[in-house]
Amino acid sequence: MTHEGSVSRARILRRALTPPEARLWVRLRRRALGGLKFRRQHPIGVYVLDFYCPEARLAIEIDGESHAGRAERDARRTCWLETREIAVLRFPAEEVRVNLDAVLDFIVLKARHRIRG
Description:
Elements: H1 3-14, H2 19-28, E1 39-44, E2 47-53, E3 58-63, H3 71-82, E4 87-92, H4 93-98, H5 100-116
Parallel strand pairs: 3-4
Antiparallel strand pairs: 1-2, 2-3
């Protein structure tokens, strides 16, 4: 897939967030989490990140049922992002559903750590 293809795909995905992604987005948008800016379904290279904080160079990925059996593919994606100094946090969709506050606490902690260096 080309970068242009990932941009088109990102536009489609923004309109079709999963329930856990939508739940998290409500708490991330408009700098609601510690003043940090997040983008949803952000294209980078050939990939589309679920959420991205440019200031912290931090990607947030929500792994639902569609990620079953994709560990190798996800590992390649994470490696590619890390070579570009983008850290990746992965959360199971169920964790977002049942423990959102802990997920948010972890995200803000990691983001602030990366910003401070």
